[in-house]
Structures are given as structure tokens and as C-alpha cells.
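Let's see one such:

===
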Amino acid sequence: MLDNKFNIRQMQAYAALCLWQFCACLGIRHSSINELVLHLLKMLSAQNLLDWERRGSTLDITGRGDPLPEYVSEIVPITNLDSFNALVESCVEVGIVDMYGASTDQPSKFLKNCIEILRRANVEPPYPELLSKYGRGSGPWGDAIEENELRDILAAYRVNIP
């Protein structure tokens, strides 16, 4: 499974790719969703994780227990709204659940939940192979990758965020 070879940065990025894939397959598009996906992916290149975490709390969609903005709820098909909301919250938790404490198995559990939500919606999870090449450093969090590497990942996974 991914959690055996991914550090937390990679797990966070993979969770963001799951959200991107879910939205792409279901035709869900909005700039606020794009901002969240890009923010989550930027954990890979974040030099300061605490600053990265704080920036996430200022987004329109935080995934931290706040209700979705009404304009987002209106564009998600009602049959997928609960799944979308659960996916957003699980995606965000991957990267922040261990931010201020000891490392646990919680990031892995939230990532597995993301994958399960996709499978229940008949959405194929993204391929992890490319992302697995970008593990840097040791320890549960790993080290930041270069910005050009992040751009390569975005292109490879077809994350086209204006």
C-alpha cells in the first residue's frame, strides 16, 4: 500500500490527486476546489510546513469541519455531495492530523479513506508510481522537493489549474 513507501508529504499529494480525479471524473469544477487541490499539492515543496498549514485555514474550502461554501454545494451533484464533503475532509486531514504532535498511522488511515471514497464512486484512483519517485529525505515527513519537480508532477497528473 502507498503508506509503506510514501512519506506524509507524498500521502498529502496523493490525497489531493484523489480529489482532483474525483472532481474531473464527475465534472465538478470550481476555482475554490482548484485552490484547495493546489494548496494540498504544494505541501510537497513547502519549506515551512507550519506556514503551509496556516495558509490552508484561509481558503474558501478548508476541509476542517467548516461547511462547504453554498456556491460549491450547488455545483456538486446531490448524489455525490456527501462523498465530496467526506473526501475533502479526509484529504485535508492527511496532511494536518500529525502536524502538531507525534507521528501516527492517522495520515495513512485518512488516505485509505480517500481511496475508498473514489472506489465507491466508481472513480479510478490515480496511479502512484510517478509520485513515488519524489520522496525526499528521511523521517515521516520527508523533505521538500523543488518547484520544477512540483510542476512536473502537476503536468504528469494533468492537474491543469489556471
The radius of gyration is 14 Å.
